[in-house]
Every structure is written in structure tokens, then in C-alpha cells.
Amino acid sequence: LQLQQRANDQLQQQLVGSAQEPADLMRTERFMLRQHTNAITCFQHDGTKIVSGADSTLKLWDVRSGLFVRDLLSNLTSVWQVRFDQRRCVAAVNRNDVTYFEVMDFGA
Hints:
Structural class: mainly beta
Largest sheet: 4 strands, antiparallel
Oligomer: single chain
Order of helices and strands: HEEEEEEE
Shape: globular
């Protein structure tokens, strides 16, 4: 999860800049995660992939192309937290009033 912290630091650097180099907001990219139909309840990125949760699904996106890759989880009652590193993804989800921690292996 150190990778997540570095990615967050890099994103913040892009958005707010530094004393030596102000942010270039024109370079900031905007993605619309159109596969979701309701509000996104959880989100994480690492520079190559985005994992987002909403609409009873957890979805994987390719940052470079901006394209939806696949559903990681579906048929959920809700999903409210996700964390991943290069190898594993852990999501806190609810199915039929039971809370689970789903652990998925990216196989890296």
C-alpha cells in the first residue's frame, strides 16, 4: 500500500504544485467513469489502474486508455471501501445484510 501513498502524493503534486513548480492544471486529466449509474462510494488509483465502487459493483479501469476493463465484483448490496497494491485488492462490501472483506489477487 506504499504504492498508493506515492500515487496519492504524485496526484496532489499535480493538483497543487510546489513552491518550485506550480501545478499545471491544463495537464490534469479528467475521466468519466460512465459504467457507474450512481455516485461512486470508493475509489483508488495507482497511475496504471483505477478501482471504483458503486451501483453494487467494483470496477477496474485502465488509466492509460481511460477505458473500463471489467467488473471485479458484482451483485453486491453495497461497496464502501477499496485498497490495492500491485498484487492484491481488498474491498469492504455488503451482500444481503452481511459484511465481507473480499480479497482478490491481481496475479502480479
